[in-house]
Each structure stands twice: as C-alpha cells, then as structure tokens.
Amino acid sequence: MSEKNIVVKGAREHNLKNIDVTIPRDKLVVITGLSGSGKSSLAFDTIYAEGRRRYVESLSSYARMFLGQVDKPDVDSIDGLSPAISIDQKTTSQNPRSTVGTVTEIYDYLRLLYARIGTPHCPVCGRAIEQQSIDQIVDQVLEFEEGTKLLILAPIVKAKKGEHAKIFEKARKDGYTRVRVDGEIYTLDEEITLEKNKKHTIEIVVDRLVIKPSIRSRLADSIETASKLADGITVVNVIGDKDYIFSQKYACPIHGGSMDELSPRMFSFNNPAGACPKCTGLGVFMKIDEALIIPDSTKSIRQGGIKASGWAMEGSTIALMYMESLSEKYGFSLDTPICELPKDVIHKVLYGTGTERLKLVRRSEYGSGTYETTFEGIVNNLERRFRETKSAWIKEEIESYMSSIPCDECAGKRLSRESLSVTVGGINISEFCDFSIVEALNFLDELELSERGVRHAVRRRKPAYPPRDADRLVSNGSPVYS
Ligand SMILES: [Zn+2]
Ligand SMILES: [Zn+2]
Fold first, then answer.
1. Which residues surround ligand 1, an ion (CB under 5 A)?
2. Among 3.40.720.10, 3.30.420.340, 1.20.120.450, 1.10.8.280, what is the CATH number of 287-382?
3. Which terminal residue of the chain has fewer beta carbons within 10 Å of its beta carbon, N or C?
C-alpha cells in the first residue's frame, strides 16, 4: 500500500471512463474541470464513498446500523486511503439549530462515540452510573477478604414519612426475620413503632453471610432476591464498616431517576430525547435588551430616548398619553435626559407599574376622557406582542430590540442534564464541542479507552431494538437533521 499517494485504478462511477489517478496524500488537492467532467464522481462518489465504506465496515454491526449502508463504488482498486469524511458545499442556513458540526455531519460521529462509550453520571450527585448484572455484583462482593461479615439488604423505603406498619407486616409474612430501619437492625418479631411525621429508611435484611469461596451461589440468590424487592438496588453492608450500593439499572442508587440505554439521539439538541427541556435545544432565549431600546440615554423620553416598536413620542399618540400619565404620577419630567432619571422611574417605564393604576387622559377632537388602568411596561409590552403576533414583519421589528441570553437550565449547552452528565475521558459532549480543533485532536490522541470502551467500540452485544429513524444518523447520504 502506498503511503504517499492515494492510487485509484479503474474508476467507472457515472461518466468516469475507467480512469486511473494518483493523488498525493496529506496535501491540499484541488480537482478542477469543466462542468460534467466527473469531478464529483471522482471525489465524492468514488474516493469518499470508498473511504467512508471502509470506515463503516471497521465498526461494530451495531454502530453500522446507525450509519446506514454505503455501496461499493464502481472502481477496480483504491490504495492509500484512510477513513474519509466529506463536507458538502451547502448554502448557509438561517436555522439557529445548525452548527458547523451538524451541517458537516461530524457531530453525528461524535454522538455515536458518546452513545457507545460514554459514562453516564447522576445529574444530581455526579456519581458514575453503572448498570451491573447480578454476576458482576457477585464478583465484586466476593473480592472482600475472606471472613468479612456482610448483610445483604433490600432498600424498600427511602426517606419517606409514615409508620410503615404494612411494610413490616408484609416482610414478616414473606418470611424475613430482620429489617434495618434508619441504620438500626430490628428483628421482625418485636413491635416496631415509627414516628409518623418523620422520614424513615427501611431495608429488609435478605441474608447474613461470611465471605468464603463456597458462598457464591447463595450470594447470587440473595442479591437477586434483594434486587427484585428493591427495584434493582442492592445494598451490601460490611458489618462494622460501611454500605456498598449496587444497581442493576441505569440509575443512581441514591437519587434513582433511571436513564435509558445511551443512544445517539440523546446527544442531539434537535431531538426531544436530548434537547434541554426548557429552551428546547436552542440554548438561548430572546429577550428585550434595554441597551437596544435606550441607545442614547442623554436624550429625554420626549426626545425619543426610548426607541421601541409602537412607542414613538411624535404626535398625540397613545404612547405619549401613557408617558404623560407616568410622569404625573411619579413626579418626573419627560424632558429630563433618561440617564438623569431615578432608577425606579426607569424601571416603572420599562417593566410596568404592577398593581398601581395610572390615570390616563385621552384628548381627541371630540373632547377628552379620563380612565384608570395599570401599565405593563415597554419591555413587557414588546415581549408580549412578540409572543402573540402572527405578523412576521412585527416579529422581525421587535426582534431588532432583542438579544439572546443563555438558557439558565442548560447554561446555553442545549442538551438535557442527563445527556450532559455523560462523559468520555472525563468531559461531556458540549465541553468537547467547545474545544478548538487543535485541542480536540490532542484530546482524542491522548484519550485512553478503558477495556470496556474498546470492547464497546468494536463489538457490542445485539441491541434489544433496531434503531428508530431518529437514531439513524445518515440516510441516503444526508443527515436526518442538520
Ligand atoms: Zn445521585
Ligand atoms: Zn436550555
């Protein structure tokens, strides 16, 4: 295989006439020619298609399902080819959901990486969440020194108020003899009275064991029993020492909240499975920006110091009527430069008078009238009209007074807490995307995959379900969402 060149022999895609070509590697190479001469047939339909096909072939069958099939191009041979990516020419889109990563589809591969080898963490306490089989739990417990005394516990009530009399009754009926209540062991033949208004934690003692190799099958039975009773959670208490908590589910043993099996769509901010629920994946909210509606605070209100759609002061406008009434009620002049007005006055003008009512004097050619009303404030007025209007023109007009502020739920990172709690090499997908290209490359070069990561990357057990369309990253060569 040539290291220095990509050698294409017998390319016949589309109108290519069985051509041979040698292209230098690791160089910027430009293919030029007349329209219809076969530039894209060579670059995209032959070289890229084969590079991508070989890359996809190298992945597990599981990953391949998400990436879609690529047919072998009509070519005799291509040597010196690495896995290839293509960045199509695309017209820039106005869609605020698109990023360079999504438009070029590179983000799709990143999502696949996070779905395959990411480590989920509890969004509340940050503890790594591992789903363990009974066998794996047994193996870990058997690593305690021989002679260690253990309790196998099934936590069935977690910090819940009440006397829980029925729980004890049921445990007694099921043949258990001991429980641990708020850390204290009781036998079930004694009367256990709990304070009704306090929170209690109740664990059934499923078994008491001393570690030695011969206990393996009994240990497995007990852990299975405990896990069944406590919805996947088993607590192993080393007597005189501490508790070890094991979970058979993708869930924090303390905070619960089960997580789905990781999938690529969980890392898409354009998919409900991954998007931050508050900003629906946009990462920002559009808010009226005070600096944009008061561009020059040395002007007074009457001079038009507040610029906002529908709030012009010229003529006998409704806006002027409100301002005059405000100045009357709060004792300020419409001719004072805005920068010299008291802060609370500006706040009332922008954010309203709350429950305080204004006396509005309407003057018209038919005489004048007075009525009382509250005032919502210019900022609130603009934001309400922005939400309510059906006119694209008014929306655009009001939008010119808005700035985007980061969503406080996701801090502008666009993904749900659960998705952001999944890490590869200690960082989440959003932190990865904040890297410069050089930083990203260094990170990937230094990334050491755990044994599990390598195993999952190359061979993955068959999933319980075929990928849904939303999971499929590429269909017919174009991204499902960009
Ligand atoms: Zn937790
Ligand atoms: Zn958000």
1. 122, 124-125, 252, 254-255
2. 1.10.8.280
3. N
